[in-house]
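[retry 2/3] Hemerythrin domain-containing protein: previous attempt timed out, resubmitting with same input.
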Amino acid sequence: MKENDVIDLLLRQHTIIRELFDEVDRHQGEERKRVFSRLVRLLAVHETAEEEIVHPYARRKLVDGADIVDSRLEEEREAKEMLCRLDDMDVTTPEFAQELNRLRTAVFAHAAAEERYEFSELKAATSEGERRAMAVGVKAAEAMAPTHPHPGTESAAKNLLLGPPMAVMDRARDVIRKAMGKSESGQG
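[retry 2/3] Hemerythrin domain-containing protein: success.
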């Protein structure tokens, strides 16, 4: 896969997300917290980048783009809400495992819908140059994205307006928690 193509980049991230869900399941205690923090961070930055770069482009470029994107944004909002609940839970509890399974189901269904309805259509409707430009945009958006979920910011405009201050707060919170010996997901 070429990660300078936005579709290949996002498909690779979907694979890593699936792998991280499996890795969270395989671990316990502190290692589970650490892996879950990586999953939270990747999901947060991945969705922000899609919301800022990919979805607006798909909305304009694809036949039925608005319907396709609106469905994905609703799925993303629901997943962010689940992720927020999980981010505040103790990873050792049965409730965490149950909620994680619900999130996994939602995220996998969302990724499959993106791949089938949005990414395949974008690949057909865009040039290599357009996909390379979007990949650059996605990487830049991810570098500045919040590291924790923020439901209600599923539009490009809201992400661009609120994303940078939320990212600063999230990254400061991550540093403070790390310095105090807590995991990034708040447990410790």
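[retry 2/3] Hemerythrin domain-containing protein: Residues 141 and 148 are 14 Å apart (CA to CA).
[retry 2/3] clearing retry counter.
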